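PROTEIN DESIGN WORKSHEET
SECTION A - STRUCTURE
LENGTH: 267
TOKENS:
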């Protein structure tokens, strides 16, 4: 009795794809979110003695986590595993994030991180809405994927770092702005606008609202809590104050300041 013949497909390096309305937008979202992942993993509230490899893995989680989750929901092989450009760009972005100073540059890092999250959030929301629309999902499904795309990567990093996921704690309308961006894209697409014009309008709306929320400290209201439950102070590190170098107290309240050891102190 002969053994069955084993047929294997040749392993290839994959086809790098950089262009195409959806591909370009998705690559922008993935690479900028990967930078956010590396920056987030280096924040004192998230840092858990990660290795260099760990930082790069965090960049990958942030960069392709949302897209992979979105594609799995749509029952597709994730684009990040078909197009090597995703992983390459995420690793480059992770390298850039890793190189930014840890201690003395923490205020700059936090301001840069908040700015880049404002930049990447609408792009991932747009790519999520585009993928959902291409799969002929109803409007609520489109909006759901517009939220999942930009938030799933952050969820994976927060859980890995042992901190409450950003989606579930008080913040500057993180989830709502993703949904708003997706809604604007749906309206632009329904109006028959070109893909890049719809993306540009949606990005401007989402990016602008997010930046204003960061500057002004607009936050979701907290749920009603039992008496005695801890509630953080109102001294949030606003983006404008970070850039001006005036947020040390707020940064310390959130555990984001790295204290320098006293001179002559014993090891």
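SECTION B - SEQUENCE
RESIDUE ASSIGNMENT:
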């Amino acid at each position: 009795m002969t053994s069955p013949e084993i047929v294997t497909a040749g392993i290839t390096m994959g086809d790098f794809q950089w262009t195409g309305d959806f591909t370009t937008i998705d690559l922008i979202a993935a690479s900028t979110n990967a930078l956010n992942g590396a920056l987030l993993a280096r924040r004192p509230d998230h840092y858990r003695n990660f290795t260099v490899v760990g930082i790069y893995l965090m960049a990958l989680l942030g960069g392709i986590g949302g897209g992979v989750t979105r594609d799995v929901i749509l029952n597709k092989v994730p684009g990040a595993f078909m197009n090597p450009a995703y992983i390459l760009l995420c690793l480059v972005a992770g390298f850039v994030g890793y190189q930014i100073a840890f201690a003395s540059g923490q205020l700059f890092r936090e301001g840069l991180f908040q700015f880049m999250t404002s930049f990447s959030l609408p792009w991932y929301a747009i790519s999520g809405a585009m993928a959902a629309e291409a799969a002929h999902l109803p409007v609520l499904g489109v909006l759901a994927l517009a939220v999942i795309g930009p938030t799933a990567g952050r969820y994976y990093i927060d859980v890995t770092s042992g901190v409450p996921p950003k989606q579930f704690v008080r913040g500057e309308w993180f989830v709502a702005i993703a949904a708003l961006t997706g809604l604007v894209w749906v309206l632009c697409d329904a109006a028959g606008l070109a893909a890049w014009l719809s993306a540009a309008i949606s990005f401007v709306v989402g990016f602008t609202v997010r930046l204003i929320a960061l500057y002004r400290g607009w936050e979701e209201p907290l749920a009603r809590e039992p008496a005695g439950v801890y509630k953080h102070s109102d001294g949030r590190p606003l983006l404008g104050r970070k850039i001006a170098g005036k947020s040390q107290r707020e940064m310390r309240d959130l555990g984001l300041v790295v204290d320098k050891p006293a001179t002559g102190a014993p090891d």
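SECTION C - NOTES
The chain is about 60% helix and 0% strand.
The chain has one domain: 21-220+236-253.
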